[in-house]
């Protein structure tokens, strides 16, 4: 698969190098200015409480990462990609040993076990993720950033160093140094398990006038996912007479990716509507529709919209590939 990320280069992070055998840390940086006149989405009260807890956890974790055993533990567990990305749930890390103590014991050293328990209870599916450049945990002490809930996904990002000082990173530019990020996992259910997707139920139609609907290629240009949240979760809802497919295309996660397998959505005898989006969180407060046609599906935020279109039945009657550019992506069907 071709993987290429087209990113702005308005901001660069550098490393402060000490002696050759000493750990290094990212240098301070500033964020890019906000877009004039852009109205940021609101942050709900529950999200604000979660964010406050995330900042406390981030500061505490940053202070503990002077311990190479803890850095190695995080790097190794995130590299397992239990949900397909370089991240690990706190509940997984908590009991694991690192340097003669568990991860939870190390993290609670400055706040106490009870206070840590209260904090993590305020963050559903708390995760620790590794973002940015490749990380050598033996040598580099990274900053710990917060992937905040709600508001503008591309807002400046707060990160903490081992001394507890706050720094601001550009929310749109992936750092060129490793950064550990604490946030809420987007890919698991309430139990911490990665759910298995299933197609929506669809009525059977006569095979006599049924045309198979296939996606033969997908080019992703903008995934609408900030670097703090890692690889994107690209979902599509496809609905029409006889079709009710809704699912994730896991092989497409970054700008520049393309679909490398044919996806069959079903068989139809009518027009077919496509709705593409990047799935964030689980608020489910935005109803998706194409030209007033509702899918009966809700997503987290209208900002996650990638594109939609209605394709006539006649386009599926033959074998000609039909390309439709939706701005953030381009779909090819027949």
Secondary structure elements and pairings:
Elements: E1 15-16, E2 25-26, H1 45-64, H2 68-79, E3 87-89, H3 90-93, E4 97-98, E5 101-102, H4 103-107, H5 113-121, E6 126-132, E7 144-146, E8 157-160, E9 166-169, E10 178-184, E11 211-220, E12 234-240, E13 243-248, E14 263-268, E15 272-278, E16 286-290, E17 293-299, E18 305-311, E19 322-325, E20 329-333
Parallel strand pairs: 7-10
Antiparallel strand pairs: 1-2, 3-6, 4-5, 6-10, 7-8, 8-9, 11-14, 11-20, 12-13, 12-15, 15-18, 16-17, 19-20
Uncertain regions spanning at least 5 consecutive residues: 1-21, 28-39
Mean pLDDT: 82
Largest sheet: 6 strands, mixed
Number of strands: 20
Report how far apart the termini are: 22 Å
Order of helices and strands: EEHHEHEEHHEEEEEEEEEEEEEEE
Estimate the strand proportion.
25-35%
Count of helices? 5
Q: How many structural domains does the protein architecture include?
A: 2
In short:
The chain is α+β, with helices and mostly antiparallel strands and 334 residues long. The protein has two domains: 15-184, no CATH class; 207-333, C2 domain (Immunoglobulin-like, Sandwich), CATH 2.60.40.
Structure, described:
This protein is of the alpha+beta class. The protein folds into two domains: 15-184, no CATH class; 207-333, Immunoglobulin-like. 15% of the residues lie in helices and 30% in strands. The protein has five helices and 20 strands. The strands form six sheets. Strands 3-6-10-7-8-9 form a six-stranded mixed β-sheet. The protein starts with 14 loop residues before the first strand and ends with a strand. Residues 1-21 and 28-39 have low confidence and may be disordered. Residues 1-18 form the signal peptide. Pfam families: DUF3103 (PF11301). Keywords: Signal.
């Amino acid at each position: 698969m071709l993987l290429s990320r087209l990113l702005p280069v308005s901001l660069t992070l550098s490393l402060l190098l000490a002696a050759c055998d000493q750990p290094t840390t990212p240098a301070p940086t500033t964020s890019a200015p906000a877009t004039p006149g852009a109205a940021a989405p609101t942050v709900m009260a529950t999200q604000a409480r979660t964010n406050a807890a995330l900042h406390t956890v981030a500061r505490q974790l940053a202070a503990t990462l002077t311990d190479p055993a803890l850095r190695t533990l995080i790097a190794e567990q995130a590299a397992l990609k239990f949900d397909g990305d370089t991240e690990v749930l706190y509940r997984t890390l908590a009991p694991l040993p690192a340097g003669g103590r568990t991860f939870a014991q190390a993290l609670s050293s400055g706040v106490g076990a009870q206070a840590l328990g209260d904090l993590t209870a305020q963050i559903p599916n708390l995760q620790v993720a590794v973002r940015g450049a490749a990380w050598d945990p033996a040598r580099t002490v990274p900053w710990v950033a917060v992937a905040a809930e709600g508001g503008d996904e591309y807002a400046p990002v707060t990160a903490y160093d081992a001394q507890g000082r706050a720094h601001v990173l550009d929310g749109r530019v992936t750092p060129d140094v490793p950064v550990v990020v604490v946030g809420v996992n987007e890919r698991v259910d309430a139990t911490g398990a990665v759910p298995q997707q299933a197609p929506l139920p669809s009525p059977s139609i006569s095979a006599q006038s049924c045309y198979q609907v296939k996606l033969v290629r997908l080019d992703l240009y903008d995934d609408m996912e900030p670097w703090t949240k890692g690889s994107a979760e690209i979902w599509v809802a496809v609905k029409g007479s006889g079709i009710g497919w809704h699912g994730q295309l896991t092989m497409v996660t970054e700008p520049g990716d393309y679909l490398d397998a044919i996806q069959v959505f079903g068989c139809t005898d009518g027009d077919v509507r496509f709705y593409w989006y990047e799935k964030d969180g689980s608020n489910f407060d935005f109803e998706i529709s194409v030209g007033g046609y509702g899918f009966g599906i809700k997503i987290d935020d209208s900002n996650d919209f990638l594109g939609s279109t209605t394709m006539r039945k006649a386009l599926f009657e033959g074998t000609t590939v039909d390309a439709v550019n939706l701005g953030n992506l381009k779909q090819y069907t027949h």
